[in-house]
Amino acid sequence: MDVFALRDRLVADYEEFTRSFITVRDARIGEVVDRELAEGLLWPESLIQLNPSFAPGATIDDLAAQGVLHDANRAIFRRGKTEAGTGSAGSATLRLHRHQEDAIRVAATGANYVLTTGTGSGKSLTYIIPIVDRVLREGPGRGIRAIVIYPMNALANSQAGELEKFLKFGFPDNDGPVTYARYTGQESQEEREAIIAKPPDILLTNYVMLELLLTRPYEKGLVEAAKGLRFLVLDELHTYRGRQGADVALLVRRVREATKATSLQVVGTSATLAGGRDGRRAEGRDRRGREPAVRGDGRAAERRGRDPCPLDASGTFRRFNVGRRTAGARALVGAAAGGARSLRRRPARLLDRG
Asked: Strands, DSSP E only, in the chain?
């Protein structure tokens, strides 16, 4: 289809329709109207926009060869895998965006981090790949290693579908080495009982269901299975503001205590965290070739002699790219990473954009 020819046909039809109800008796006015219509007053020229690609990064095979990722990730994270296929036939290694590679490298250090980048940029892989890598290194089937919290069930449902492509497709009987389960309240009683009886490596849930897991006796088995939890992910971090942010911050602290998570790694992602002193949103900045908005190492702030992150006395969670509208998100992640200090003692401060 020639989209420009289609546009010309639509404009011609619209012009004919428009002229059908325009009757100008004054010749001079009619001349002006005809000239303006002929010049396209009511139908502007075609608009052509370029959508820059995200900066490319390394492939999964590259990171596995460098020892950043476990070698078994090569078979998991591939493009073109199908439900009926087995092995690597018909698929190719997954090439990451640069911000995804940066996040994976930060995760490999054990640091907590927040990623802010545009919609459709593959934010979920920036925590799924490190989680799967940790499970592979420590051994699957040892209980719940990661909990991913979504603010809406629709997001959890979508992520479950994406995980199926990587963690099930391409393996015999669609039974991959790393398991996951959605536990959001939508499941049947039989499905819940199956999850409790055999906890997955990765649990997808929402903050309401996570609250219930800590209080309902018959789900105590899931809490026990999460002892020594290694990852806690807060997707759509910008949604946790004000009272809701405070509620979830307290929930995160209870999760840390209930699971005895002494080595918990906290991850936050969002496409719309505020960035900069004017509170503008930091969406899609790495599309324009700027520094990826992955904040976890704090080295730039340290070189300038500044406190990398005032929210964490332990120093494990350093700086991240947020602005004044996300004070609740900062306190929430700080609660997960830095202990159970009172939210009221955490002053809202702007952190470096880097």
From this structure: 56-59, 78-79, 92-93, 95-97, 113-116, 146-150, 180-182, 202-206, 231-234, 265-270, 294-295
- SS3 at position 76: helix
pLDDT 10s digits, 136-178: 999 999 999 999 999 999 999 999 999 999 999 989 888 899 9
Question: DSSP string spanning 156-191?
Answer: HHHHHHHHHHHHTTBSGGG--SS-EEE-SS-S-HHH
Question: What's the pTM?
Answer: 0.69
Residues 6+ apart with CB under 8 A from 115: 99, 103, 123, 126, 267, 268, 269, 270, 293, 294, 295
Q: 304 by DSSP, 3-state: which?
A: coil
Distance between CA 200 and CA 223 in Å, rounded?
Answer: 12
User: What distances in angstroms separate CA 84 from CA 65, 80, 161, 174, one per listed residue?
Assistant: 28, 12, 16, 8
Beta strands in 137-289 (DSSP E): 146-150, 180-182, 202-206, 231-234, 265-270
The type of residue at 174 is N
pLDDT, one tens digit per residue, over 231-259 is 999 999 988 888 888 999 999 999 999 99
Which residues, 6 or more positions from 46, have their beta carbon under 8 angstroms from its beta carbon? 4, 7
The residue among 315, 334, 326, 314 whose CA lies nearest residue 353 is: 326
How many contiguous H segments (helices) and E segments (strands) does the chain have?
13, 11
What's the CA angle centered on 225, arms 220 and 231, to 5 degrees? 120
